[in-house]
Amino acid sequence: MLQRGRKGALQRSMIGLQSNLNVNQPVRFPPPPSRNLAEPERKVWYEILRKYDFNYAGEFLLESALLCRQRVRECRATILKDGVLVAAAKGGVKRHPLLSIEAANHKLMLSLFRQLQLDYREEWL
Fold first, then answer.
1. What is the pLDDT of residues 67-105, one digit of tens each?
2. Between the CA atoms of 35, 109, 84 and 96, what dihedral angle is there, to the nearest 10 degrees?
3. CA of 2: how far to CAs of 7, 16, 17, 40, 86, in Å?
């Protein structure tokens, strides 16, 4: 039954991210990933798009999630190299500045995967 009257703000803001996949359609080859993505993220891009059929908005969110994943990996590598505590300017020690960036990007990445209705797997990290 169609809704009568005005649509609410929540219904207007929702965008369908996955297109309706028809079994009789030919196999869709995934679009190439962004040039900004590193090789591990490109592999995840192809792995996800082979299983799921996203429209343009879904592909944009997936690219954003994978860019966050790339930042998390790079921050984590730097933190492991430098250590969690670094020398402060006045001779003391302080938290590594990349810890907060890593945490924020990890949180955003999980939020984007949740919006795409994908269950995040540890092998993707």
1. 999 999 999 999 999 999 998 888 899 999 999 999 999
2. 70
3. 11, 17, 21, 45, 60
